[in-house]
Description:
The structure is a homodimer. Chain A is an alpha+beta fold. Chain A has two domains: 15-78, Arc Repressor Mutant, subunit A (Orthogonal Bundle), CATH 1.10.10; 93-234, Chorismate lyase-like (Chorismate lyase), CATH 3.40.1410.10. Chain A is built from eight helices and nine strands. In chain A, the strands form two sheets. A six-stranded antiparallel beta sheet of chain A has the order 3-4-5-8-7-6.
Amino acid sequence: MPSLPQLTHGSFVPLYRQIQQRLLDQIRSGALKPGEPIPSAQEIAATLGVSQMTVRQAIKSLCELGVVYSRQGKGTFVSGIKLEKDFRQVLSFSEDMKARGSMPRSKVLSFEIRHPSAEVIEALRLRAGENIIHLQRIRQANSVPMGIETSSLPLRACPDLLDKFDPRQSLYETLSERYGINMFVADEVAEAGLADGEVARLLRIAEGSPVFFFTRISYLQDGQPIEHVQSTYRGDRYKIVNRLTRRNHG
Amino acid sequence: MPSLPQLTHGSFVPLYRQIQQRLLDQIRSGALKPGEPIPSAQEIAATLGVSQMTVRQAIKSLCELGVVYSRQGKGTFVSGIKLEKDFRQVLSFSEDMKARGSMPRSKVLSFEIRHPSAEVIEALRLRAGENIIHLQRIRQANSVPMGIETSSLPLRACPDLLDKFDPRQSLYETLSERYGINMFVADEVAEAGLADGEVARLLRIAEGSPVFFFTRISYLQDGQPIEHVQSTYRGDRYKIVNRLTRRNHG
DNA sequence: AAGTGGTCTAGACCACTCG
DNA sequence: GAGTGGTCTAGACCACTTG
Lengths: 250, 250
């Protein structure tokens, strides 16, 4: 039995996170296999010299990840469900493409301050007269055009974005680093349609080819809408991959 | 101030669930508004005569729902993010349609025991020679054909389904009630395409109309694959609505 | 300094499963 | 009856925010 690293009390990483990580490592390494029980909370607590509550906190978070599941009176078992690595979490094209193993790049069609459309005003809950940052890009993976994305952001949220953002970089990274803006959730609607002449030309596909139309609104943790995106992606090279989960609460 | 119901110690509903429900009710009723802080854990604990840990457990579960968010040193605030009512959780056509306010119905094209295809064998991890239940249905909403669904389930998981299942009912309900089979997660791939002659005829749309192709594999909590579904939905009447969330762990 | 959330402890009792 | 997970307590200390 290989000796595992000791827990570090008083570290910046809380004990339950360390325990969670230990268990995760043991599962990923195959030391704990799908279907097998993990040690009981009592046992882990005794071994590591921590309270049972702390261990339970770690196990609970693993349950929420879906990598283990608990059965009262029986134990906690390793699930065979794969980790959601390549599943969509949120929405950055750059991250998405990297996760799929492609090289993301963008070609900027437009990047300027604009008056918002009625749809964007409603989506971003803009006040009268408020302007937006308008950013339209062709998204490429390995130099192949994948889709056209039109983003709108409230100007007030990132007033000097025009100066500070290099549109070839990741918009989300810039927003996070420069403004502390982090997307928390996004609601997205996907529709199936056909490419018209303009879209076909930009994406270099035949007119009438199948495409996805996306409409997405992203929100901060406090519920404030921060981004409205309308995009069109090629149906022949783009797939939507989703993990759907049963919710319990409510 | 309207007096809220007292907590019930020793009930079948744990205290933290009762507290969670109380807070949820206050938020839904508007007594606690988006952006406002909820009472501190200390205060709630004192008011209700429970331990702070118990209150924190309730608040944490509300954070996971996304209805509140906590800021260390500041407090816990009501989020303006809408509850995921009409967002896809899992996957039952019946539930989905009801949630969208439509009347679901199905027309059975085929319901029988079959030899699995290579794709299904791999998806369901079938042993050599194992058979499947094959169920093909046209899905209708308010009598309009929406899509064609082909489901495959391991025969071993539901050996007498052919006798026990009325194909006009909800498959998922039957599986849950008769076999204790409950879907936990599903991985789904959606593609955009065009209707061929056969699909067009069944869905009563023009050939070449835009459609969604779905491939879905559903899993039990232990990771065992339990259902493989391939389906084609009309692009003109069906939309994919998703809520994407940022994950933190891992 | 006071108030907040975040973590942790060392117990306790319960409900459940299994031999 | 022994072992498990699920809940709960009454404290404690820390990090952080605000006045």
